[in-house]
Amino acid sequence: MALTPELALFAGLLVVAGAVAGLLAGLFGIGGGAVLVPVFYQIFGLAGVDDAVRMHLSVGTSLAIIIPTSLRSFAAHRRHGAVDMELLKRWVIAVPLGVILASLVAAGASSAELRIIFAAIALLLAIRMIFLRNRFQLGTDLPGEPVRFLVGTVIGLLSGLMGIGGGVMNNSFMTSYGRPIHQAVATSAGVGVLISLPGLIGYIIAGWGEPGLPPFSTGFINWIAVALIIPVTMVAAPLGARLAHALSKKQLEIGFGIFLVVVAIRFVWSLFE
Questions:
Q1: What are the backbone angles phi and psi of residue 218, rounded to the nearest 5°?
Q2: pLDDT of residue 169
Q3: Does the keyword Transmembrane apply (predicted)?
Q4: With contact defined as beta carbons under 8 Å apart, do 11 and 228 qualify?
C-alpha cells in the first residue's frame, strides 16, 4: 500500500466523501455509510486489497466511522430533548441483535453476495426517497410489541449488512406512524449508536485472521481509513445540522436517492467485471 499519486488523489476524494457523510449525518440523522462504503470499495481496490475481503472491509470500516458521528449527534439532540428515549430503551437489545446477525451473515458471505445485498437495499431505499416521500401513513402511533422489537432487529440487520447507521430506515418507520420528522432524525442518531458499536465488534470478530487484509486492519476494520475520515465527519456533522434549516429536504432526499441508484448500478456492474 505504498503512496502513489493515484492513491493520494483517491485519499483526497475519500476526505471529500467524509465531509459529505458528516453533512448527511446532520441533515438526515444518518451515519453516511451509504456514501462511504462505495468509496471505500474503490479505494481498497486501487490499493490492491484482495477482492475476497474488499467489500467486507468497506462495510466494517464504515460502521467504525459511524460511532463518533452518531455519538456526537445523539448527545446534541438529547440535550434538546428531541430523542424518543423510550423507543431506544426498547431497542437496546433488538437493534444490536440484528447487527450481530448481520456480522454472522457477512462472515459467511462472499464479496459478490455482499455487493448484491447492498445494491438491493440501496435500490429499495432510493425508491422510498424518490417516489414514496410522505405518501403513506401506517398509523397514528408506533406499534407495540413484538412488532416494535422485530422492526428494530430488521433495521439492525439491514444496516449491519450495508455499513450504515439506519437513519433512513428509522426515519421512514417513525414518520409512517405519525411521529414528527425532527424527532425521527434525533432518534436515528441514537439508533446509529446501537448499530455502530456492536457492528465494530462483530466485524472485528468476523474478519479475525482473514487472509488478504491490508496493513493496520483488525478483522474487517481498517484503522488508517478510520483515522483519516473521522476528523472530517466530526467537523462536517454540525454544518449539516445548520444546512437542514436552509435547504429543501425534498431536493436533498431526491438527490440522495439518485446517488443510491448510481451506487447500486455500480455494484451490480462490478459483478461482471
A1: -120, 110
A2: 86
A3: yes
A4: yes
Written as nine digits, the cell of 158 is 439491514
Phi-psi region of 29 (alpha: psi -120 to 50; beta: other; left: phi over 0): left
Q: Mind listing the pLDDT tens digit for each residue in 1-36?
A: 555 676 677 677 778 777 777 777 666 656 677 778
Average model confidence (pLDDT) for the chain? 83
Residue 186 to residues 146, 215, 255, 257, Cα–Cα distance (Å): 23, 36, 22, 21
C-alpha cell at 189: 442518531
> By C-alpha distance, which of 245, 232, 269 is closest to 17?
232
Would you state the cell numbers that stand for residue 116, as one nine-digit string? 448484491
Cell of 142: 408506533
8-state DSSP, 165: -
Cα-Cα-Cα-Cα dihedral sign, residues 104, 108, 114, 117? negative
- Write out pLDDT tens, residues 50-91: 999 999 999 999 999 888 878 888 888 888 888 899 999 999
Picking from 178, 50, 187, 183, the residue whose alpha carbon sits closest to that of residue 111 is: 50
Cα–Cα distances in Å, from 22 out to 10, 116, 186, 233, 263? Answer: 18, 26, 15, 4, 18
Classified as helix, coil or strand, 134 is coil
Which three three-digit cell numbers place residue 28? 438526515
DSSP 8-state code for residue 214: P
DSSP 8-state secondary structure symbol assigned to residue 91:
T
Q: What are phi and psi of 221, to 5 degrees?
A: -120, 125
